[in-house]
Amino acid sequence: MNRPDNPEHDDPNARAARALLRRVAQQPDAWESAREDALWRATQARLNASPSATQRRLQALLGIAGLSTAAALALALWVPSASPEADGPSVVGSTPQVADAKSVSSPPPLPSSLTFDSADRLRLPSGALAQRTQGTLVEVVTATANETLLRLSRGRVTSEVARLSTGQRYAVETASARVSVRGTRFAVAVDAPNHTVVEVEHGKVEVAPTDWRVVTFVLPGERRALTDCGGSVDASERSADPRCLAEAFAARAAASTDAVERDTLLLKGALAAAQVNATEAVAWWRHARELSPHGVHAEEVAFRELEALGQARQWTQRAERAQAFLRAFASSPRVSAVRAWVVPPR
Fold it and tell me: How many C-beta neighbours within 10 Å does residue 65 have?
C-alpha cells in the first residue's frame, strides 16, 4: 500500500489512521495506487480536521454539487469492495447479516370455513380484512384471534388491520420479505420471483428481508421494492439497478462502526434510490435522516428529502419537514428556499 514517506512519528493520530486503513490494506491488489493514495490523504485529513472541515472535504469528495449528470452520479456512487474483474460467485459469508425473517412453524389447524368470498375478500379471526386481486396466489398459514400469517406467492393482497393489542401479530410473508404491522392499511405485491413491493396507505409496517438487506419501516405514502439483487452485498454493488445499489449502501452503513463512513454510505444509498422514483426516494431520505439526524450530511439529507416530497406531491409532509428544517438549520443558505415550502400549495 502506498503511504506518505517519512510519516511523523509523534503524530497522535498516526495509530488511529493505521487502524482505520488496516481493512483497506486487505483489499485485492487490483486497487489502483492513485486510489489508495487518495484514500490515505482523505483519512488523514478526517482525523486531523475539525468537524466542519471534515464535512466540507467529504462533500467535495462525493461531488454532491456536481451530480447534475448521470456519469457524475455513477462515479460518486461507485465504491469497489472487490476487484472489478471478479465475475465469480460472491462469498456470502462475508456479507453482514442484518435481516433474518422468522417463519412460523407448526401452525394450528385452520377453520374449514376460512376462504376468500366471491369478491376476493377474507375476514380473519383477528378482525382484519384481507382482499386479493384476481389471479393472486396467497396461503393462509396461521389465522387465530392473536396471530395471522399470510404467505403470498403471486399477485397482490391488501390488508386492513385494526390497532392490535399487546401479543397480537399480523404479517404477510413472501419469498423475499416478511411484512409485519401493528395496525394499518397496506398492500404487498409479488409480480415476479424474489420481487416484493410494499405500499402503505396509513399506519406503519416493518419490512424484514429474508436475505442480507436491512430491516426498515415504511410509512404512509411510501413504498419499498425488494428485487433480486444477488446473494450478497458484493453482488448487489456490481448491479446496475439503482435499487440494488441503494440496498448495498444501506447494508454497508448498518455494518459500519465509523460514524462518518456510515453517514456517507447512507447518503449514497439515498442518492441511488432517488434515481428510481420520487416515492421511493422519500422513504430512503427519511431512513437516512432518522438513522443520523445530526450526522455530517444531515443538512444535505434533510434538504433532499424536502425535494423528494415535493416531487411526490406530498405537500402536507413537506410542510411539516420544512418547519423542522428551519428549526434545525436556521443558518443554512437554503433557508429562503425552504420557507416557501412551509405552506402547502392549494
Answer: 9
Asked if residue 128 is part of any domain, the answer here is yes
Q: Which residue, among 345, 346, 325, has the nearest Cα to 337 in the 3D structure?
A: 325
Please check whether residue 98 lies inside any domain of the structure: no
Q: Give a yes or no: residue 311 inside a domain.
A: yes
Cell of 109: 389447524
Q: Can you tell me the distance from the alpha carbon of 224 to that of 253, in angstroms, rounded to the nearest whole number?
A: 18
Number of H helices, E strands in the chain: 11, 11
Residue range of the domain that includes 171: 121-226
pTM for the full predicted model = 0.64
Q: What is the CATH number of the domain that holds 84?
A: 1.25.40
Q: How many domains are contained in the chain?
A: 2
- Give residue-wise pLDDT tens across range 197-242: 999 998 999 999 988 898 999 998 898 988 888 889 999 998 889 9
Which runs of E-coded beta strand occur in the chain? 121-123, 129-132, 137-143, 147-161, 169-173, 177-181, 184-192, 195-202, 205-209, 216-218, 223-226
Among 175, 177, 165, 156, residue whose Cα is nearest residue 128:
165
The continuous run of DSSP H or E covering 282 comes out as: helix 278-291
Nearest CA-CA partner of 147 in 120, 170, 166:
170
198 and 265 inside one domain: no
